[in-house]
Amino acid sequence: MTLTFTVAGLAIKDMLDSDRLAGLSTVAITVGTAVASGWLSSLMLRSGRNPGIRTGYAVATGGALVGALGIELSNIFVFLAGLTLFGVGQGATNLSRYAAADLATEATRAKAISTVVFASAFGAVFGPMATGWLGGLAESADLNELTGPVIGSAALFAFAGLTVWLFLRPDPLVVIGGLNNQQPADKPAANMSMSEAAAVVWADPLARLAALALVISQAVMVMVMAMTPLHMDAHGHDTGWIGLVISAHTAGMFLFAPIGGTVSDRIGRVPTILTGAGILTLATVITALAGEAPRALMFPGLFLLGLGWSFAMVAGSALLTESVATSDRVAVQGSADIATSLASGLGALASGFVFDMAGFHILSMLGTAFAGLLVVLSFVRLRLDGGGPGGLAAA
Question: What's the CATH number where 260 sits?
Answer without folding.
Answer: 1.20.1250.20
